[in-house]
Design brief:
single chain, 1079 residues, alpha/beta, 7-stranded mixed beta sheet, 19 helices, 56 strands, flat
Length: 1079
């Protein structure tokens, strides 16, 4: 269907009308307003503005605001309105009938108070019987977004009887209508179930097209009363025709001859002149990564090649949406702006610093306006997209010169149809907007400025882009009263001026130099000579020689258009000197000047030297020799200095004592023993785990010359790792070899094979994290508190040895038995020197969710940062393997901790236990408890566990006994159990102060002593019999058991003295053994 988009001026209402002419349908568009409840002081003018705005208008592109209209006004011109894209506001009126009889759809792209698409309130006169009585919304059938608010209309009838839910599209929005009958046609609730939206009858064949909004007269997309998305030449479509379409034959994108731009809810062939084209849309402003350019009088958005010119939000838009005026709280937001995406509004509340909502603000001083607007915009100029509204101004400023760089007023948003408003400013005498060259849309309203002059000289129509734009100027200073000083400068043309002086002219009568009008250019005289480019005086290039014989110095810009050069001439260009070693396209360029000051090429190094004089050649040879001599002398001096330094160093070495000075630290020597194992002594069985730097195997250590088999864990460094990883691996061996404690995994030895191997004790039950997760239904309060004590004692030992672990977590605690756990993984641990209190780490991956805040920010690790990790480890135990900060990205953890958030209280913990955790997570490291204090605190709790941990069925919980066949089977699945010996028994044969029963480390062990067939080996009744109901001295117990048990079995029994794991008191585990059963 053919479509024509015609823009013309209507003499009836003085507006630009965009007429879409179809074969049978036409629509008239007009702009909406955003004034809300603010009105002009003159009610007559308020009504005239409303009529001019909406007479003969069918589609309001924006908001329809009807406010402050008295009862005697004729509002019949509103009957032509069929669609509003924003909201409809009817408030503070006195008329009795709202004649919006043809309004079918309110789109609600903008909503009043961000909630309502239709707001009707306060439409009555308090001291009379005048007010709104009837809503003429007979054809309103759809509100796409937003709700309805109807309240405080004293005389309004039947509004509460309207079926608003049929009109409002969003079913979740409840219309707020206060009861106070219009005939409304229902188009949604009466439809058949098969209809997607609206209908024109109750039958299945009466469904509207899915793109229709507000109802329809038939089933086609051209029968819609309004469109849900876009109107393309009378047809409702999902999107406008795109600039390019895909050709399935050529597999290429091709230009679409039917392409149109999206303008509101319409598809148009051409955007309005005061809008910007961005891709296939008409927009008010370009996005932040693009800038606005004009080509053939069409404004377009193009991508910035570098940094985009700064575009700022105007009053009433984006970040300043709630602002009513420029004031001291937001004036700094306009600094360095080249464009204002919105409006500039100056009201008395901002200028005087008076505000009734958020408190008073400081007054805007003249120096603030100058600093922000004039000085920052001096070079780049400014383009407000909306309007400039000045209703208040500092009293000590007599003009608007702060906007002397204002180039364009876009008028894409208007204030009651006005784009430039200067109202009631008694002290302004001139506008001084000398850079203003365009007002794209809207009218000019300048009134009641008693001292304002020059306004009558301005040719306003020369600034306008549309024929319907008007100038409304009245009640300013009478031009007849102007003195001789209040007239335009004689150098100004008849187009007028903005103020006094030759720099305020709209156009120059003769010539212009920059912004200043002059009577002639400096063609033949003056310090700086010029040439005339039309009526503009342009300076000659600085390399042009100034003529003194009344002749021209240049005739065009650039150094190639000089009549005569000031210094030298190189080809067509005047230059300051001839090129001397200038980098050219292929090689360096050397030129010399002849007598006529023209530069010619200089050929050297065996090439023909055309025109070269003898003095030049001689100078080149002498210069080369001079350079050679300087280089030789420099080398000789350098060699001499090095020789002197060597002699002085040797003399100092021979004269100085060879013994280093003593600086004793007072630290006891580290006498730990490191056992070097042979690779033939080790046998790997299977892989337990692997990481980035190595692999851990379950294996057997068979000491050379002996038959015992010791289950071990073998940690092997990967072959692909570098020297740094080898050093760190040996540092870990040093730390483990230096530590000996019941709750630290012990290093058995190091194998210096091509791939270094660390051999440690094998913990059969794996890591504590997996253990608590697997056995969470059988772990009681006593056992949890025991583990807290053991970890604290192990860390207390590390603190006494000045070692920072840096990676304490439940995954790095291993389970030897349910009653005995050990801390491991010293890969990140660091020994502190005597004078060190902290360790500063380099880069690398870190366990952020277990680390203190100072470790994350500054990589500073101390014993108190280990306390933080201890708190997280305890939290893991109390949640039976819960993940700390689960679901929160690691990058967000520092901000979360700084805001005061911490891990939640586990369900089984009382406030006493949780407070211990919270103390571990204090921001101030010195405020956290010491490990000694933590061990003592959990010892106290372990004596009465059910008081501090509440676990359902605590008394009935019992873990499997460690003295069964599964215990040994878990040590080594693939090997026979004969000659099996625990590592601690092998290394410390006199453990627990019991005389050795079977063997010493260097004597052969009879494997028959450690057989599973021993009649007492799996006899848990032995330990639960009355014989062991009270503590027995070890000296009495050993002779009793020695005839029956092998040394390894006895050691196992002594290591696990309780069958019921919930009855262990960890606070006595490190004390001398007083009996098998603790009281």
């Amino acid at each position: 269907m053919a479509v024509f988009c015609i823009t013309f001026y209507s003499p009836l209402n003085g507006k630009v009308l965009i007429l879409f002419v179809f074969m049978w349908q036409w629509r008239l568009l007009c702009a909406g307003t955003e004034n809300k409840l603010s009105t002009l002081s003159d009610l007559e003018q308020q009504y005239r503005t409303l009529r001019k705005y909406y007479e003969n208008c069918e589609v309001v592109m924006g908001n329809l605001e009807i406010t402050s209209i008295d009862r005697s006004r004729d509002l019949s011109f509103l009957r032509s309105i069929r669609e509003v894209t924003g909201y409809v506001l009817v408030a503070l009126n006195q008329f009795d009938y709202l004649p919006l009889e043809n309004l079918r759809i309110i789109r609600g792209t903008k909503m009043y108070e961000d909630r309502y698409a239709l707001a009707i309130f306060l439409n009555y006169r308090r001291d009379g019987n005048f007010g709104l009585r009837q809503l003429g919304l007979k054809n309103l059938t759809e509100i796409l977004q937003g709700g309805v608010y109807v309240d405080q209309n004293k005389f309004l009838c039947h509004a509460d009887t309207i079926h608003w839910q049929d009109i409002v599209k969003n079913a979740r929005v409840s219309p707020l209508v206060v009861p106070t009958n219009s005939s409304v046609t229902l188009t949604k609730t009466v439809c058949a179930e098969q209809c997607d939206g609206r209908c024109f009858g109750p039958w299945v064949s009466n469904c509207c097209h899915r793109e229709c909004a507000g109802g329809c007269s038939g089933p086609k997309d051209t029968d819609c009363f309004a469109c849900t998305n876009f109107n393309d030449s009378g047809a409702c479509v999902t999107q406008c025709p795109q600039p390019h379409v895909y050709n399935p034959t050529t597999f290429q994108l091709e230009s679409n001859p039917r392409a149109k731009y999206t303008y509101g809810a319409f598809c148009v062939k051409k955007c309005p002149h005061n809008f910007v084209v961005d891709h296939s849309s008409c927009v008010r402003a370009c996005p932040s990564n693009k800038m606005e350019v004009e080509n053939d009088r069409i404004k377009m958005c193009i991508a910035c090649t570098d940094i985009c010119p700064k575009a700022c939000d105007g009053i009433g838009t984006a970040s300043l949406q709630s602002a009513q005026t420029v004031d001291s709280s937001n004036i700094d937001k306009f600094t360095n702006c080249t464009k204002i995406n919105g409006n500039l509004v100056f009201l008395i509340t901002g200028i005087k610093g008076i505000c009734c909502v958020s408190g008073n603000t400081s007054p805007i001083l003249a120096v603030m306006l100058l600093a922000v607007f004039l000085l920052k915009w001096y070079v780049i100029g400014c383009v407000p997209v909306g309007f400039l509204n000045i209703q208040s101004w500092p009293e000590n400023m007599t003009d608007l010169s702060v906007f002397s760089n204002l180039a364009t007023i876009g008028g894409r948003a208007l204030y009651s149809g006005i784009s430039l408003l200067v109202l009631k400013q008694r002290w302004i005498s001139s506008l001084q907007l000398q850079s203003l060259n365009e007002i794209s849309a809207g009218n000019v309203y300048i009134t009641n400025n008693s001292q304002l002059c020059y306004y009558n000289t301005v040719n306003w129509t020369g600034l306008f882009r549309a024929n319907n734009q008007k100038v409304l100027i009245r009640n300013n200073r009478d031009p007849k009263e102007s003195t001789e000083r209040m007239v335009c400068d004689p150098l100004c043309s008849d187009s007028g001026c903005w103020g006094p002086g030759p720099d305020q002219c709209l156009a120059c009568r003769y010539f212009s130099r920059g912004r200043i009008c002059v009577d002639t250019c400096n063609l033949y005289e003056g310090e700086v000579r010029e040439y005339a480019n039309g009526s503009v005086c342009v300076e000659c290039d600085s390399q042009c020689e100034r003529a003194d014989d009344y002749s021209l110095t240049c005739h065009s810009p650039g150094p190639d258009h000089c009549v005569k050069c000031l210094h030298f001439k190189d080809g067509p260009n005047c230059v300051e000197k001839c090129p001397d070693g200038l980098q050219g396209a292929i090689s360096f360029i050397f030129k010399y000047a002849e007598a006529n000051n023209e530069c010619h090429p200089l050929y050297m190094w065996g090439f023909v030297c055309g025109g070269c004089g003898t003095p030049l050649i001689a100078a080149g040879v002498i210069g080369g020799l001079f350079v050679v001599v300087i280089v030789a002398l420099s080398v000789a001096v350098s060699v001499r200095r090095k020789s002197i330094k060597k002699k002085r160093a040797l003399r100092r070495f021979l004269e100085t004592e060879l013994v280093e000075p003593l600086t004793p630290s007072g630290t006891a020597p580290n006498q730990a023993q490191l056992r070097i194992l042979k690779e033939t002594e080790l046998k790997r069985v299977k892989i337990l785990g692997s990481g980035a730097f190595g692999t851990v195997y379950k294996g057997i250590w068979v000491p050379e010359g002996e038959t015992v088999k010791i289950p071990v864990a073998i940690k092997i460094l990967n072959e692909a790792t570098g020297p740094k990883a080898n050093v760190e691996f040996m540092d870990e061996a040093l730390i483990m070899a230096s530590m000996e404690h019941p709750h630290l995994v012990r290093l058995l030895g190091v194998c210096l094979s091509p791939t270094i191997q660390l051999v440690t004790q094998l913990m059969p039950h794996g890591c504590l994290l997996d253990y608590v997760h697997e056995h969470k239904d059988n772990i009681g309060s006593q056992l949890l508190l025991n583990w807290c004590v053991q970890i604290a004692k192990g860390m207390m030992y590390l603190e006494e040895r000045r070692l920072v672990h840096r990676d304490l977590a439940a995954r790095n605690v291993l389970v030897k038995s349910p009653n005995h756990i050990k801390i491991t993984d010293f890969g990140l641990a660091r020994l502190l020197d005597v004078n060190e209190k902290e360790y500063n780490a380099d880069g690398g991956k870190m366990p952020i969710k277990w680390m203190a805040l100072e470790c994350i920010h500054y990589r500073k690790f101390t014993h108190q940062s280990d306390v933080w990790s201890y708190g997280v480890t305890i939290w893991e135990l109390m949640t039976f393997g819960g993940k700390p900060y689960d679901g929160i990205p690691t990058r967000d953890i520092p901000d979360l901790l700084e805001k005061g958030e911490r891990l939640p209280q586990p369900p089984i913990c009382t406030i006493d236990v949780y407070m211990v955790m919270v103390k571990c997570w204090m921001i101030d490291a010195d405020s956290r408890p010491k490990f000694k204090e933590l061990a003592a605190e959990f010892c106290r709790m372990a004596r009465d566990p059910q008081r501090y941990l509440v676990i359902q069925g605590d008394d009935r919980m019992k873990l499997p006994s460690p003295n069964d066949s599964k215990f040994f089977q878990s040590l080594l699945d693939e090997e026979e159990l004969e000659d099996l010996m625990d590592a601690e028994e092998y290394l410390v044969p006199h453990a627990f102060n019991i005389p050795p029963l079977a063997y010493t480390p260097r004597t052969r062990v009879d494997s028959n002593r450690v057989r599973l067939s021993s009649p007492l080996f799996f006899s848990p009744l032995l330990l639960s019999s009355p014989l062991f109901s009270s503590p027995l001295p070890t000296s009495l117990l050993s002779p009793l058991l020695s005839p029956l048990l092998s040394s390894s079995l006895l050691l196992s029994l002594l290591a696990y003295p309780h069958i019921n794991s919930n009855r262990v008191n960890p606070c006595t585990q490190n004390a001398p053994l007083r009996g098998l059963i603790q009281p």
